[in-house]
Amino acid sequence: MELGFDKAKFTCKFGYCTGKAPDLADPSLHVKAQDYKRRVSGNMRAVPSEEIFKLPKAKNYYVSRKYDGEMAMLFFDGNSVISVNPGGTARVGLPAFDEAATLLKKAKIGSCVLGAEIYVRVEATNAHPVQQVVRILRSPPSKEDLNRLGVAIFDIIELEEKPVDSAAKVYPQLKKWFEKGESVHVVEFEKADSIETIMERFTDWVIGEGSEGVVVRHDQAGWFKIKLRHSLDVAVIGYSEGTDHRKGLLHDLLVAVMRSDGSFHEFTRVGGGFTEDDRKTILADLKKRVVPSDYVAVNNDYVAYEMIKPGKVIEINCLDLIVERARGGPVKRMVLDWDGKRYSATVRMPLVSVISPQFIRIRDDKEAVVDDVSIRQVTDLAAVPDADRSVHEDDDPPSELLERQVYTKVMKGNTMVRKLLLWKTNKKDRNDYPGFVVYLTDFSPNRQNPLERDIKISNSERTAKQMFDDWGRKIFITGWEKVN
Hints:
The chain is an alpha+beta fold.
């Protein structure tokens, strides 16, 4: 294991340096971090607190406190510690890392790889813990701020280059190594031989002390993450209808939160929590609100959403909000503009993956306005990059729609849709934009891949118009009926 890095490519402040994994002496450390995150995510089952009693009855559980911070993999080579997160950010020189290295040397450890959470030990009262961690790690205001960061170790992944996969070995060993640590320590944990003990620790740590949740680990039963459900108010922007015997019933809703600039940020799909009566009445109401959209979204069954005029608000709850994909990098979702008549897509921006969203009720006392369905509900719970940035902040001249044709065709009871667009980008002077774009979306629920897209570009309006006309003659043939 080689822990060197190219200091010229890292940013250093107060002895703390941060950079990207490709600039490490061993870039493969990033792959290890990604693989570990993916493996843990695949093995970890999210469980709402009210279902703790459904855990398999067994002895030798280990229940640990969940810390609200940045997950990172720590690498120790016998001399120093470096962290790499699944997103590819490497960190060196945190005071807590120096203490960890000192304690591991005293324990006569030659090398190890650890799973850890970097968190704020002393929290300010005006900011969410995750946001504080991100702010300090990104650009520490002072040496004192770096000293506020703690490292809670929750796993031994490798010890002397050999894998470790037993909870019964991990926790006692970590306690032995780090029991005298101050800024670095093993996560608070307890061995539990009953579901009642797990419930007690959840009540103490989460209900009583406000921790984010608990993690329960068992060598045979697996990993479980137990948290309270979060409640959010969201705007309904689309719906899909059931098929076959579920025709006439709501299948699921496409919902959004609103950014401060008034745009709608696609949030999640909600398909659970509805009664059969809900599915009838909500669908009947939403069918009256259908509006045009230049953005096509499909649900998990590859059924296209009908977009609706914004206004209706629902309350949902969810088990967790995940800001990072398993291999690292932000979770990006489409931001939509509503001009009073139709939706148009602007850009995909970071948001979250929503775990186990459930419908609670319709909020007739709220509207689809920033104050009622703000993205701040999400950022109060998770650190979302660029959440305060306007999607139009760095706008170039807006594109101009020149031609639009939409045709439908019914086959075997399913509606197929083909939409052909021609627009002028008004950005031809930029090297990364063509002058004109011809864009086709072809949706057919009967295909293995229901939604297909194709694109043609040109810097000549005349050529682009010819492409548009030729393409239209080719695809809009017998049986297709023009919508507009």
